Amino acid sequence: MTVDTVIEGGTIVTEHGQFEAGLAIDDGEIAAVADEGSLPDAEERVDASGHLVMPGAVDVHVHIDDMFSEDTYETATSAAAVGGTTTYVDFAWQAWEGELSIFDGEGTLLEGVERKIEKGEDALVDFSLHGAITREDDAVLEEIPDVIDAGVTSFKMFTAYEIGLGNGFMNTVMQEIAANDAVGVFHTEDGSVCDALTEQFQAEGKGDPEWYPKSRPDYAEAMAAEDAVRMATEAGMKYYGIHTSCRKSADVLEQFQEEYGEGLVRAETCTHYTTLDDSIYAEMGNKPMIAPPIRAEDDVEAMFEQLGSGVLDVVSTDHCAYRLDQKNVDNWWDSAFGANALQASLPVFYDEAVNRRGHDPSFVVEHMSANPARIFGMPEKATLEPGNDADIVLFDPDAEYTITAEDNVGNAEFSIYEGRSVTGRPTKTFVRGEVVAEDGAVVGDAGYGEFVERDIPEW
Question: What is the pLDDT of residue 120?
Fold first, then answer.
């Protein structure tokens, strides 16, 4: 038997540990992981000496080609490939009318799914979708089974902005999601508190970026999280809290997880909440203006504590690509919310977790690959088990470099990690056995990525 590719000389890293072995790839799948002497002949042999051989990162929280991103599917997935992300989950929007909307009128959730799948025809890496519910319209309840049949098994709701939903309507939606055994995904900030503080600061002329995190305080995040997770557990719905940023919010999730278990309550944080603190606003102005905000040093510590305890399962990016003119404005409230991270996330988190905090590389694989794939119903992704997709990253743990926006391959014109020195970076990224990025450059073709129809996950 001759396989397509053998990767030899590297150190295999899984969520459970690391060991010396080779890996065989055939027909886009992992054919074997074994002692190199027992691997079959191959048409191509890849020398991974000095490298970690890891599953590709699975980023379950990104914004691409919509009102929150200047990236196209081609540019965002190019950044993902260079950064070692081989699968991501974007948002399919139920069209609405409003200041934030890019749509001509209202539309259905299923139309949103179809719209994003069409845009994904330019993707370089594989992708899936969350359905985003933006209006209090009972018709969406009837759509949920059809959206699940289309391979979208999670539904996002907001508690803030013009697309924020009231608790009563969310409670009804949660019951329908629970009846279909799907997952609810929640952006939790109390919109009324944040809006009132924003109006206060506007009236007082407090437009300097240091005032921004004070407009969206940690208690507002914790308040909304408590409401949402309480309704979810009462409904028996799988609850996933996105971009957890602070100790107070994580403590709420811990309380409910202790009572109801991981079978109902899971959550993520983001790379920026594990690596940056609120001093960055004085340093970088509006560029790191993200919602929820980047918090205090103690909140950074809390994110690692709760990743270690299992209250937080996943590290994602909340990737949003913007131009500098959308950030460099006089008052923070006129700035776009969000920052790009697909290209930098894996090396930045690896450097922080492994080099600066002493975690094993398996800690990175667990929270950036295995857990997100498992939680969101992608069993064929993010492990190095034979039969699974050959989504693999060769990672040089000794490579030293400084992050700069000059290296961006996406459309974002800045990086909130500008000037950060890191050790460790991806050097080769495989998606289903094909090399799509190598040494910081894209070598695959746009359109290679495929839409992943996700299973109903078992928690």
Answer: 95
